[in-house]
Amino acid sequence: MHASSAIPIATGKQTVQKWGNSLAVRITGEVADVAGFVQGLPLTTEAVDGGVMLRPAGTMRMSLAQMLKAFDATRHL
Length: 77
What we know:
globular, two-stranded antiparallel ribbon, Pemi-like Protein 1, Chain: D, 4 strands, single chain, alpha+beta
C-alpha cells in the first residue's frame, strides 16, 4: 500500500527532536498499540513521498517477562 493511500487508524501529532547525532520522534502509546510496536522491536525506516514509513524488520527475541508485559488479552482472544 502506498503511504499516501493508507487510511489512518490511530494518529498523533509529534515534534521531531534531536537525539545524539540523529533525530527522533516519540510514538504515542495508542499508535504503538494499534501498530503492534513494543519496546525492542526492530524496525526499518523508509523515506516515502511526503513522509516516513516504519515497518517491523523481522522478529525480536523477547524474554518471558517481556512477552507477558506485551500480552493484551483484548487483542489475543
